[in-house]
Design a protein that fits this description.
The protein has one helix and 15 strands; from the N terminus they run βββββββαββββββββ. By secondary structure, the protein is mainly beta.
Length: about 210
């Protein structure tokens, strides 16, 4: 079965703008500028192309992304990013083909992204909205892979939201009681340590952690 690294931006109702996706081994970063790939980086996406149907992996691994809908939108590349450009994932996501480097992420990983939700967007649904996923859903066996996502709590996303980090069949749910920032860039991250501990961060602040059962 082909696996995908999919839905790298919040989509549909949330209408988030995505920039600076990074995947790799746990490592500390300086968030004063665009990321630079190092020996720990498995994939890094700046979304700086400004047009087209693909975005390049800035790491040496070549995990380039393609728009899942294979149709460029007029608004997708028009909004400035946190440090340079961005892509507005209004109704579509990006996918990458499976690779050995992406398959190496199951034992220890950091997933992180800068996101922006416009002020004219309202999310009052409990629907699941993916940020970064590499997951085989359902089927006869257990869930295989990881997923980092938002899920509304039935109120506006500016008031309260769950950030969810799922590894296989286990899921860490961390609630941002004050919601996430609207109309400004914010940073989200999820980490899995080699001892199985999962953590979720919002703007560098730990929201929750879960030890391996």
């Amino acid at each position: 079965m082909k696996r995908h690294l999919g839905r790298l931006a919040l989509v549909c109702v949330v209408q988030a703008i995505c920039v600076g996706i990074a995947l790799g081994a746990p490592v500390e970063y300086d968030y004063t500028g665009s990321y630079t790939a190092d020996a720990n980086t498995v994939a890094l996406f700046h979304f700086d192309e400004g047009s087209g149907l693909t975005t390049a992996d800035a790491s040496p691994n070549g995990n380039n992304l393609t728009l899942a809908t294979l149709a460029e939108t007029s608004v997708g590349w028009t909004i400035p990013g946190k440090f340079d450009k961005s892509y507005a994932g209004y109704a579509e996501g990006f996918t990458a083909e499976d690779s050995a480097s992406l398959d190496s992420l199951y034992h220890s990983v950091t997933l992180e992204s800068w996101l922006y939700i416009p002020t004219d967007v309202s999310m009052t649904t409990k629907q699941y909205r993916g940020i970064i996923t590499k997951m085989r859903w359902g089927g006869e066996g257990p869930y295989d892979g990881f997923a980092f996502a938002f899920k509304g709590r039935g109120v506006n996303i500016s008031e309260s939201v769950d950030l969810r980090f799922q590894i296989g069949g286990g899921c860490l749910i961390a609630t941002a009681a004050d919601g996430v920032p609207i109309g400004e860039w914010f940073h989200v991250a999820a980490t899995l340590d080699t001892d199985g501990t999962q953590r979720i961060y919002l703007n560098g602040q730990l929201l929750g952690e879960r030890a391996e059962p």
